[in-house]
Design brief:
With 120 residues, the chain is α+β, with helices and mostly antiparallel strands. Helices cover 23% and strands 38% of the residues. It has one domain: 2-Layer Sandwich (Tetrahydropterin Synthase, Chain A), CATH 3.30.479. The protein has a 5-stranded mixed sheet with strand order 3-1-2-4-5. Belongs to the PTPS family. QueD subfamily.
Length: 120
């Protein structure tokens, strides 16, 4: 099994409506997203072309979340809920006979992140 990871960033604002503390107020982050696909190499020696991975993530996640107010997309946009939303948007698009979505990491700050792995 080979693991292929691509890193992305996007900027977005949110507030946590079910949280009591400074994060309940409107604020923004530069999120870092790492998307990992696991699988076997094809005849070209690749699990997935980085360009194809970039296209799928851009079309299904970044074009929606970048420079958005995430509360308009996800009711309680905690890092955990955003990660689950991203997973749901990508899991079928990154699932073939040769590879599958293995893991996403979503950094809300440089030192705080959520890791999500599916079960297959």
């Amino acid at each position: 099994m080979i693991f292929v990871t691509k890193e992305f960033t996007f900027d977005a604002a949110h507030n946590l409506i079910k949280y009591h503390g400074k994060c309940e107020k409107l604020h923004g982050h530069t999120y870092k997203l790492l998307v990992t696909v696991a699988g076997k190499k094809d005849e070209e020696g690749m699990v997935i072309d980085f360009l194809e991975l970039k296209k799928i993530v851009k079309e299904n996640v970044l074009n929606i979340l970048d420079h958005s107010y995430i509360n308009e997309i996800i009711e309680q946009p905690s890092a955990e809920n955003i990660a689950e939303w991203i997973w749901e948007r990508l899991k079928e698009k990154l699932n073939t006979e040769r590879y599958f979505l293995y893991e996403i990491k979503l950094y809300e700050t440089p030192t705080s992140y959520v890791t999500l792995r599916g079960s297959y």
